[in-house]
Here is the input.
Amino acid sequence: MTSKRIKIALLGNPNVGKSSIFNQLTGLRQKVGNFPGVTVDKKIGSCHITKDIEAQIIDFPGTYSLYPTSSDERVVLNSFSNPSSEDYPDYVVYVADATNLERHLLLLSQVKDLHIPVVLAINMADLAIKQGISIDIDRLSEKLKIKAIEVNGRSGDGISDLNKSIIDLIDGKGDNTSHIYTATSEEKKTIDKIKEFAPQKLSNYQALLWAHHYNELPFLDDSQKTFIEKTTIEDDFKYMKYQIDETLSRYNTLSPIVNNSITIQSLEGDSLSDKIDKIVTNKIWGPIIFISLLMLVFQSIFSWASVPMDLIDEGMATLNEAVKNVMPEAWYTDLITDGILSGLGGVIIFVPQIAILFFLISLMEESGYMARAVYMFDRIMAKFGMSGRSIVSLISGGACAIPAVMAARTIGNWKERMITIMVTPLISCSARIPVYAILVAFAVPNTPILGGLLNLQGVAFMGLYLLGIVATLLAGIVFKLILKADAPTFLAMELPSYKMPHWKNVGLTVTEKVKTFIIEAGKVIMMVSIVLWALASYGPGDSIENAETIAKQESVEKGLTDAQTEDYIAAKQLEASYVGIMGKAIEPVFAPLGYDWKISIALVTSFAAREVFVGTMATIYSIGSAGEDIAPLKEKLTGAVDPSTGKHEFTVATAFSLMVFYVFAMQCMSTLAVVKRETKSWKWPLIQFTYMSLLAYFGALFTYHIF
Here is the structure.
């Protein structure tokens, strides 16, 4: 017997606990996609309402009204005003917060007027009781003419009753004809014309939404938009006045219903949330607490992740060595070990940082603290085109830009999210540390200052990080002027009550983010890793073999040790490879910055990841056996002399030029892959790579010529 398939929309305001109910209904049977034509996430899950009824559940973004002020809210409008949409639901589960019931019923009243069968799930009833709020569910159901159910998304209480209510809707037991708002005669005139013209059957309220939003509805073609525009002009359709009048009318209807259905027992003193907020949102203590927490997040990403990252690194190295020992010496063995496994290691090694970041962010989201952070910093960050939520990404970028870019998903406004994504990689990440370490050690003396409290090398390190921060804020201002907002950037939100995190939600969030990174970004990283391996392993004709032969002869003449010979051969082969040829080809481009072909090769190879620069330089300068010890490389760079000119190949000016280059340059294919994943387009990572590369080039050029 074939199961009946239905589509259920999960809808409600932000911070009402929709995710908890979604997880209760779907468990692990869910996936993340995106709504058509936009970058807003679409969480889809499935469950069996009965053994014969399978439901696809779509978790829509948190929305306050069908008059949108953000890209998230526009997604809901686009789906609910278009009966032909692939996301148009058969039924709606509307989730409301029991502690703010009246405020949360505006959207419910709009959905009801669409004549889509709906059931009201009242969440957080336990918190309402603690605040002295009791709800007469039966009276509320009677007045609203829909079934209302008390549920607890955290514990699962009431979920079975919710399922029964959905079954009642399927059986046609719900009221699907009454409405909350009655259109005025002026509005009705426009509504009738649009309904007659529309190619699909519309409810009165859907036709009214078309009249208000026709220019922003992507499913309408030009002729339809032209007709509606002409109609609204002829009817003198007053958009703003009608929206305000409608909203006031809805509240005039809803307020008495809610007031007659709830009882509020006054409690002495402030609530616990109010008491905490007096400290947490204080103008002085609030920012201090927030910055301290984010420093904890940063430190956790940096320190907690180091052990699992080292284990992953060692594990991949052991696996790589084992494969080499088992398989014969052949090109395909090198492809597997140096290309595929190396690329795979480059993907997996970031998993601990991503998992830790989103674990901590989820804790702040679930507890209700993140809303306070947004509230405190939104006005300041708005000056730079971002929002309070951008703070999380920018601070996290000090550890790694990859999870930091992914964290920008919490920013609801498209413009603010895009600016955050575009500027976050300018924050110096941990991958730059090996580069900074060798260059600072080479160019800056280890001289104590301020009575030995600091030293010049430490100040230089701090200066590089501050340079990245300043560039980030300035870039934010530029993008603020360039990008066009899809909606006003004012803050419209409510501060939820503090609560203990729901660990199941936290676990599902972390799992989802890690899986997304491995599957989506991993594909791009693996592809580029294999290409880089091929370019570094092969050259035209028999150039690699000739380079090896010549290197062996010269090693004998120079009396090099076995380790030195191996390094020397690797350097000569690299020079003869396609990457080496590319390095010499682009040398004229980078010569004004003080870079020769060797440094140019390092710039090419470090596109995979910035830290590759040190390894490439070590190989080129024939000291690959030195591993991660920077002292031999520093000594080699100091003593390297161009035999044709007798001048030092690597100077202090070159070192400072490289420092500035790596502060600004987008030398990280992993970040570009994630930016592509987050923006659903190659356009933005290309723009990001271009502007950061130009900034790096001209910054390095200026630096080289002042030293």
About this structure: The two ends are 80 Å apart (CA to CA).
